[in-house]
Amino acid sequence: MTLNRRDFLKVSGAGVAITLTGCSSQPSSGKSASMAKPHVVVVGAGFGGATCAKYIRQWGPNVDVTLIEPNDKFVSCPLSNWVLAGMKNLDFITHGYDNLPKHGIKMVKDYVTGIDVEKRVVTTKGGAKISYDRLVLAPGVEILADSVKGFKEAEAAGKVVHAWKAGPQTALLRKQLEAMPDGGTFVMSVPTAPYRCPPGPYERACLVASYFKQAKPKSKIILLDGNPDVASKPALFKGAWSELYAGMIDYRPNNAPFAVDGNTMTVSTEFDQVKGDVLNVVPKQRAGEVCDLAGARNDSNKAWCTVNLATFESTTAPNVHILGDSVLSNLPKSGHMATNHAKVCAAAIVELLAGRQPDPMPVVANTCYSAVSDSTAGYVANVFRFEAGKGYVTQPGGGATPKGDELNFTYAESWAQNIWADMLS
Amino acid sequence: MYNKKTTLALAGFVGLALSGIAGAADMHTQVIAATCMSCHGPGGNSVGAAPGIAGISQDRFVKAMQGYKSGSRPGTVMLKLAAGYTDAEIEAMGAYFATLK
Lengths: 425, 101
Known about the structure:
Structural class of chain A: alpha/beta
Structural class of chain B: mainly alpha
CATH class of the largest domain in chain A: Alpha Beta
Number of domains of chain B: 1
Mean pLDDT of chain B: 82
CATH superfamily of chain B: Cytochrome c-like domain
CATH superfamily of the largest domain in chain A: FAD/NAD(P)-binding domain
Number of strands of chain A: 25
Low-confidence stretches of chain B: 1-25
Radius of gyration of chain B: 13 Å
Number of strands of chain B: 0
Number of helices of chain B: 5
Mean pLDDT of chain A: 92
Largest sheet of chain A: 5 strands, parallel
Number of domains of chain A: 2
CATH class of chain B: Mainly Alpha
Helix content of chain A: 25-40%
Strand content of chain A: 15-25%
Oligomer: heterodimer
Strand content of chain B: under 5%
Strand order of the largest sheet of chain A: 5-2-1-9-21
Helix content of chain B: 55-70%
CATH architecture of the largest domain in chain A: 3-Layer(bba) Sandwich
CATH topology of the largest domain in chain A: FAD/NAD(P)-binding domain
Shape of chain A: globular
Low-confidence stretches of chain A: 1-34
């Protein structure tokens, strides 16, 4: 496979130059590209990566796309809180990649271990060397386990998980919650922003409370928040806590944990030492490791990636585009947003490879539902318009619902089904 | 499946280009329309409770969006989103969705 790919890319590399110099007045088509196909490598098949791969093939049928992903299946973080609460099972949020090859996407199951930005070559753990014309990195976040003392050990022992990447940890936390006695205490921590999915921790508190209310009503939740206040949809969540779960949720802002002990089941913050029967510590995060391989984790803390937000191309690594949670911007770190990054980026890549100018003023939208019980949900929705020198400017009319309802719960599930289909079907 | 759709879409954009929307605007419309598909399904064909919007007439699309924009039409999330788009973008998206099957 590697040799074929290399040989093919030698031809392809020569062809790109022809495309760029000779086709500027000619629309791209599959036919003209039979000898000269540009190649895009996408790393990570989550919301951002899978969507980007699919839309590049849709908008640029002459572009070859390789999608590198180590996991067999996609497990959705959105709706994983529903699984924790027993409202859905893990199968519901787990989806295969079987349909992506039908769009002409070449799937490679592997880890990326090296990126040569100058030579434009990606190296994988399996030993493949894959050349690219443009590279897209969509790894999601890296969880900084070391930022909370004792977390790594407690996590390795299976005692304390973050469950901030859906999958085995989601299943384990669900088991822990099911095994907890009535009258027990669930302690959850929220990292200081920015982190993946701003409303996620508060939705989790609501849905675990919803489960407790039905299955073990004497139980309590202590929410240790590193932020000064509820970081997203505060009216929706605080309203639910007081109306639906009065007396169940003890919310403690400005209270980030610095240590956890899985043996004594204690979380330590600057102000508190909190014991719990089930502990769910969500450490701080930064851009996925693979971004560092391209030298693209380049903000002042070396944590997130700065990009040209009209094309999502890294400001330091040429021909490398970054999508989703890894990007530093004013846009929320949501799966929905990642798919929007992906579409803007896919369009920009197709235009750039064809020698055309990408849209200088792309428009994206965020629609983010949060369930507050097993039958009600609210949302926040905004449109953002890119303006040179300003970044994405929030457009008028957007905002959040103050209260959850049943219709939006139905739409929340519909959103998940449609966005999963849009990226994977 | 997508080849057919892409062909239809391109036909739509040639029309738009002739009517005065230049180069990047074609892709601009495709991208905005694609962002609708996160909730309304791939190609505008919903697989959930949200309504599909593939193949609806431009007139119906524009009336609905303008109704959400002004607040005269009842709705949920669209009441927060519609005002974010210009009238020209709404017209162009309507023309595009009318071409989808």
